[in-house]
Amino acid sequence: AEAQSQRDEDQRQQDSQRREILGPEGEAFYESIGDGMRNASAKNLVNAIQQNMGGEPLTQEQSDKLQGLIKTEMFTGMSLDDTDLFRPLDEWTQIVNDHQQNVVRAAAGFLTPDQMGTLNKLVALNLQQLQAQRAQRAKTLRIKTAAQN
To answer: What is the mean pLDDT of residues 121-142?
Structure first.
C-alpha cells in the first residue's frame, strides 16, 4: 500500500513537472500522442472482438461505441504497473474485473444478446490472459506473490 501510494504521488509530481516544462501547447501535443496510442490499442482490441463475433458482426456504430468504452475504461481509467504485482491476486483481479464489467454493462445498451454472449466469453478469456501475464511478470521479476506462498 505504501509503494502504491508513493507511486501515485510520484506520478502526480511528474505530471506537474511535465506540464510546467512543456507549457500548454506542449502538454496538448503530449496528450494527443497518448490519446492516439490509447485509440490504436482500443481499435486493435475491438478488431479482435470483431473477429470472434462469428455470424453477429459488429456494425460500424457498435464498433465505434465499443472502442470508446474500451479506450476510456481500460486504457485511460485503469493504470496498473509492476507495483501492482504486490497487491493480493484477489484485489488485483477485482480491479481489472471492475473495469471490464463497466465496459460490459455499457455495451449491453447497444449490443445484441448474441453479441453480449460473445463479449462476455472474450472478457473472461482476457481476464485469464491478464492473470497469466501478471504471474509471468512476477516470476520474471522474482516477486513472490501471495499465490506463490
So the answer is: 94
